[in-house]
Specification:
By secondary structure, the protein is α/β, with parallel strands linked by helices. The chain has helices at about 1-10, 25-40, 50-65, 80-90, 115-145, 155-160, 165-185, 200-205, 210-220, 225-240; strands at about 20, 40-45, 70, 95-100, 145-150, 190-195, 250. NADP nicotinamide-adenine-dinucleotide phosphate binds near residues 26, 48, 74, 101 and 151.
């Protein structure tokens, strides 16, 4: 019996943990939710508009791994996030792992960028993390445990043509991560960032094919990354990252070193 339990803990080291993944209906977030669930975490699949995909994923995770649920919330709206986080705490009484993944692009050259394009990206990609984390941190402090993993981007490090809004938001995440890591370290809460390079999701598929080929030719590994390759690093931080905090882990095929 003890041997069986030991094996279960080894194969599902996140058993008993509760994870929230924002923007988990598609792309990187979907793969992260699947990975955390596969490792045993009760997983909350947050989505904004893709209800069917999120419900489908939650049903798959509950069937194949551990209980999961899909909850709608626009992370840029404080009232939505309050509802989301209260629902999680009412249902599961704690949150151990938060993956702040939800993100959008609204590309435009700076001089033609509207304030709306600027605000939409900043409010979703950066302020969304503020809302989510501020609502869930007290519960993590109470349990003296937390793993906060923010998804930034290589564009935070290199800049991106037509992406002043996106790179500002993603670079903001790097600063937020380091400062919050300092404030939370005494509660056994780690805060880290993962910086993906170019990963095959809807976000990259939206880039014109010619531009995609140009980008690919500059990647030392000669290919785009897969969402699973990002999910593997997030899972590593959640499962084995006990002595890692305030860091940015690059998953970019060598494009930025
Ligand atoms: N793909 C890349 O090459 C790449 C590279 C570097 C960084 N990243 C970052 O990785 C993250 C995921 O990117 P991805 O490529 O997987 O994107 P994606 O395929 O476009 O999926 C975006 C996800 O975010 C959700 N979302 C968007 N706005 C939201 C909001 N206001 N509230 C809640 N959820 C929201 C979407 O939900 P709905 O479908 O329900 O609206 C969807 O699940 C983003 O932060 C992105 O900036 C991606």
């Amino acid at each position: 019996m003890a041997l069986l339990e030991g094996n279960l803990v080894q194969s599902k080291p996140l058993l008993g943990k509760v994870a929230l993944v924002t923007g988990a209906s598609r792309g990187i977030g979907l793969n992260v939710a699947r990975e955390l669930s596969r490792y045993g975490a009760i997983t909350v699949v947050n989505f904004n508009s893709s209800a069917d995909k999120a419900e489908e994923l939650a049903a798959e995770l509950s069937r194949d791994h551990v209980e999961a649920s899909a909850i709608q919330a626009d992370v840029s709206k404080s009232e939505d996030v309050y509802r989301l986080t209260q629902e999680i705490l009412d249902r599961y009484e704690r949150v151990d792992i938060v993956v702040n993944n939800a993100g959008i692009t609204r590309d435009s050259r700076f001089l033609s960028m509207s304030l709306e394009q600027w605000n939409e990206v900043l409010h979703t990609n950066l302020t969304g993390i503020f809302h989510i984390t501020q609502n869930l941190l007290p519960s993590m402090i109470e349990h003296n445990y937390g793993r906060i993993i923010n998804i930034s981007s290589i564009i935070a490090q290199t800049g991106g043509f037509g992406q002043v809004n996106y790179s500002a938001a993603k670079a903001g995440i790097l600063g937020l991560t380091k400062s919050l890591a300092l404030e939370t370290v005494k509660y056994n809460i780690t805060v880290n960032t993962v910086c993906p390079g170019f990963i095959l999701t809807d976000m990259v598929a939206a880039v014109p094919e010619k531009v995609q080929e140009k980008i690919k030719s500059k990647i030392p590994m000669g290919r785009f990354g897969t969402p699973q390759e990002v999910a593997n690093v997030v899972r590593f931080l959640a499962v084995d990252g006990d002595y890692i905090t305030g860091q940015c882990i690059n998953v970019n095929g060598g494009l930025y070193m």
